[in-house]
Design goal:
By secondary structure, this protein is mostly beta strands. It has one domain (10-69). The protein contains no helices and seven strands. Strands 1-7-2-5 form a four-stranded antiparallel beta sheet, with no helix packed on it. A three-stranded antiparallel beta sheet has the order 4-3-6, with no helix packed on it. It starts with 9 loop residues before the first strand and ends in an 11-residue tail after the last strand.
């Protein structure tokens, strides 16, 4: 699902990713950068850098953040306000 008006509704630390509840389409490198394995390919993300990719699997990535959308768009996230 594409982001609406360049705004995502979900941001999570990569190590807390929930692929069954969210669809992630961008990786943010945080303030220090990070190394993460996405779709079985290890990649390095520089500090304050973004990588746009449809994420089907993720491991590692301490320091990375994943941006995306809820899969359940009717109920939304139970973590929001």
């Amino acid at each position: 699902m594409p982001k609406l008006n360049d705004i995502y509704t979900i941001i999570v630390a990569a190590q807390n990713a929930n692929i069954s509840a969210h669809t992630y389409t961008e990786i943010y490198g945080g303030s220090a950068g990070c190394t993460i394995t996405v779709n079985d390919v290890p990649i390095s993300v520089g500090p304050a850098s973004n990588v746009a990719i449809w994420i089907r699997s993720v491991s590692g990535g301490v320091g990375c953040f994943l941006l995306g959308e809820n899969q359940n768009v009717i109920q939304g996230s139970t973590l929001l306000g």
